[in-house]
Amino acid sequence: MDIHIWYTLLSAVIGGIMGARARLGQIRTLEMVHKRFESFPAAFVKNLVSSHAKRMPLNAQASQESQDLNKAYAAMFSPFWNEIIKCLREEDFISNREMDLLSVPSNTGSLRLVQWPLFLLSSKILLAIDLALDCKDTQTDLWNRICKDEYMAYAVQECYYSVEKILHSLVDGEGRLWVERIFREINNSIQEGSLVITLSLKKLPLVLSRFTALTGLLIRNETADLAKGAANAVYQLYEVVTHDLLSSDLREQLDTWNILAKARNEGRLFSRIEWPRDPEIKEQVKRLHLLLTVKDSASNIPKNLEARRRLEFFTNSLFMDMPSPKPVSEMIPFSVFTPYYSETVLYSLSELRVENEDGISTLFYLQKIFPDEWENFLERIGRGETTGDADLQENSSDSLELRFWASYRGQTLARTVRGMMYYRRALMLQSYLERRSLGVDDYSQTDATTQGFGFSRESRAQADLKFTYVVSCQIYGQQKQRKAPEAADIALLLQRNEALRVAFIHVEETGSTDGKVTKEYYSKLVKADAHGKDQEVYSIKLPGDPKLGEGKPENQNHAIVFTRGEAIQAIDMNQDNYFEEAMKMRNLLEEFRANHGIRPPTILGVREHVFTGSVSSLAWFMSNQETSFVTLGQRVLAKPLKVRMHYGHPDVFDRVFHITRGGVSKASRVINISEDIYAGFNSTLRQGNITHHEYIQVGKGRDVGLNQIALFEGKVAGGNGEQVLSRDVYRLGQLFDFFRMLSFYISSVGFYVCTMMTVLTIYIFLYGRAYLAFSGVDRAVAREARILGNTALDAVLNTQFLVQIGVFTAVPMIMGFILELGLLQAVFSFITMQLQLCSVFFTFSLGTRTHYFGRTILHGGAKYRATGRGFVVRHIKFAENYRLYSRSHFVKALEVALLLIVYIAYGFTRGGAVSFILLTLSSWFLVISWLFAPYIFNPSGFEWQKTVEDFDDWTTWLMYKGGIGVKGDQSWESWWDEEQTHIQTLRGRVLETLLTLRFFLFQYGIVYKLHLTGKDTSLAIYGFSWVVLVGLVMIFKVFTYSPKRSINFQLLMRFMQGVTSMGLIAALCLVVAFTNLSIADLFASILAFIPTGWAILCLAITWKSIVRSLGLWESVREFARMYDAGMGMVIFAPVAFLSWFPFISTFQSRLLFNQAFSRGLEISLILAGNKANVDM
């Protein structure tokens, strides 16, 4: 355990230092994005633009000027940046207004300076005018004040040049001469430093209002009335500038200018204007209008937190070290590969509308969790904010968009496909711009638009040569045959993504002459044809049923033949991708050619972003825990430890290396349940090299409910237990050098061993203290320790407490927060997590990992556990939680509680109750966490009505007898039988027997501490306690005798039960009255006999065949039912008590979900309560 603690601390420090050196977290706020935006184009061109696209039409003189060079960089940067912003708009993370403010102008026009996005320049003109109005100094002083804000200086310069260019394009004849004269005079005064004399700066707001009125007309489509209005606006601008803005000398010169005066007198001056038709002028008019009219600061744009995070990470990655990209035509071709079975492809309207018992639908839940994205979605499809769900469903196109909008916020195949197809979109844009820069195929170097890159046949062909996406939908053929909705949704994805390919197993049945039906298996690859129908691309006959081992790896193995290229990116169906990250794929693939030591890379590790963190507090805990591992944890594993394996599916494989060395997936049943890590084992054993890269990220979904998380962690822990038994780990241990072997151990199998040791430490300590308490040695030990000054035990206990509650396991997470969010945000996030009871969650997870890892070590038989990836908006019933956690957490927690009660009742602690609390605080915290975490993190877990319904459901389940075909979720008896299936081998039975013997300690110790026995320590006392226990069992049998067997003498049985009841009460009264037996002794006896009874039950279950042959199995089952009923009541009573108080439920909603959903939930319940009145 000490090694585990030191590794956790050192890995956090080393990982933090390495991350800082890699420049992670340098841009972590929107303010930093604003401040460093000037440097983005140059960094982008350096790292993400290939040598072909860098060929710019610059002459020798211009290339020497930094302004022109920056403008060229901005021109290359703008199409990529604007496509990123467009994708954010399509994903509804930003609104139309935000898209306009975030877009970068093309910078290919004749304007002499770099044009920056409006979100950097908004309100700067208004602030500059305020400075001018307050100016009482020289022109130089005014300009120096403006230049203190560099973006204000950019805004002023751009506004000046744009006004000149727009006015020059609008007018001709005498009007153009006036424009040229005005700007010539202003330029001269600027050079002479007399601008504040030439112009009356107090009149600038008036000029601004006139010009804003003009641009407001020009951004609209031309009509006769608008043309007259625009001409009038120009004339009013002329009047204001000439008679108000200019100095008196200039005003007289212009008034007496004959050419101008003649035109004005004849009514020809500005009588007609040339409406903007040139794309460059139209773009400048629109941009200038926004520049002059956006009054509020754009410092908080974009508002959406996910859009901010993505832009911050992308811009930060521009300054990280990465290989230079090759042109698209020369890059390494690659495939993306996704296994799919029967998960959700696309949410149907019925799934979105269906309400749970609280009246909460999935669509309502999403609208409350993502309110800004819902508003942006309505804006995108042209609907108002008040549009109801029913209105959307009336229109077929809107209803389809609604389905996609909801599906893109869940863990669906549609989301994964959209994300992975960004690779093709990025390659098409990169290829288009490379060919344009070379001037080939009629592309023009001065053509500013990239709108048509998606329609360029050459770009599409180039992208298709370099990128292939195969989704292995194993049972797609069966789904089509039975017309499952998943098949129709997959077909829809094929139609919307022309480069998507679907592989599946096709089964053909043929009859022979002798009447036997034979099956032939084919691996098939299909795509969508021009009519949207499935078109077969390849069909490969298989020698038999390919599904021999675990489902997911077999799904990958049968379809890997359809991938192409030299690299494969393995992607799960609950992942996502982003356009801005897809642009960096060329850089990542060049890592295969880079120098990474003696051996070239065979697996490129990729950073993950867990996108499910906003769903609930549990999802946030899981997201932070997972993010810590896939960033800082894997960073250290890859370098310097060199023991990173393959964990999950964003990694990029060397395709040729792996398909010639056993493939990417081992599929043997049970042993390869965690199939992904075996790919890393295989690669390392065959002298491969696994690296990790953090300048690119892929989205990843995680489980969001406690039951989902527990099942997932159970699967991983069980899979790790199987790894202990695998020959791959044995061979790695044999072949690694000593230090690498230790690193591999502590980062894989050792982590679960140390986790189990943490829990075992509690048991060993408490059983040791119980033994000392029963024997009376603890007082003497404490006295001797005090005399000798030995405090080692206290130190060990404190360390164990810190490890147990997850403080040490959170150290890497805190370091990751500090590195990528900053110190203050890291402290705030950690405190928030603690207030949301993250320690309870981590302690509960400790028990999950310990149970499943330990069970796999003892008995083997790890299995895949389907967690489900939906939104957890439903209340989990008490019985369901009890079934899932009874043996893994509840039994163990109650055992620890019994030990603690024995410790406080019979033990000695120097310092009294305070010392006892300090010594056992962590253990009590563990007990509470293991018993009540499933109900604390259960939606509506403390609502009185739900609690009443849960109790009825639980008692029904407990008393239902079951039978053949009855499942465990319907009957306690069926569930109880299922819980025993893991005990299969003689070795397992012997080990279970040895572990069960510990429960006999309670009775053995307590009977000698009773007042009744005094100081008598003879063995007969212990024997007599067994006689009492047998008597109690017989009494129990009398009271629970089956009515079916006593039907002939029911009256006699009822008489016997009555006599027994009265005799038992009389006997107790007599014993208490005439012996030393006290009331405390009665409770102590219960404390002694409960563990003994549980031990007998465990032994009976372990040796089930022997007990059944003796005819005692029915009695064992009834005793087990009584124990489960008792445990359930112990857990249920506090839940029911807390449910009496309404504020507890409100607090839990705030704790579990974000405030928007909690507020919406309460409003929905109020409305639901008034539905009856509305209907009437």
UniProtKB/TrEMBL annotation:
Cellular component, GO, one term: plasma membrane
Transmembrane portions of the chain: 742-766, 890-908, 914-937, 1019-1039, 1051-1076, 1082-1103, 1123-1144
Gene Ontology BP, a term: (1->3)-beta-D-glucan biosynthetic process
InterPro entries in alphabetical order: CALS1_helical, Glyco_trans_48_dom
A Pfam family assignment: CALS1
Superkingdom per UniProt: Eukaryota
Domain Glycosyl transferase: 301-993
GO molecular function, one term: 1,3-beta-D-glucan synthase activity
Residue stretches making up the Callose synthase helical domain: 117-294
Record keywords, A-Z: Membrane, Transmembrane, Transmembrane helix
Protein name: Callose synthase 10
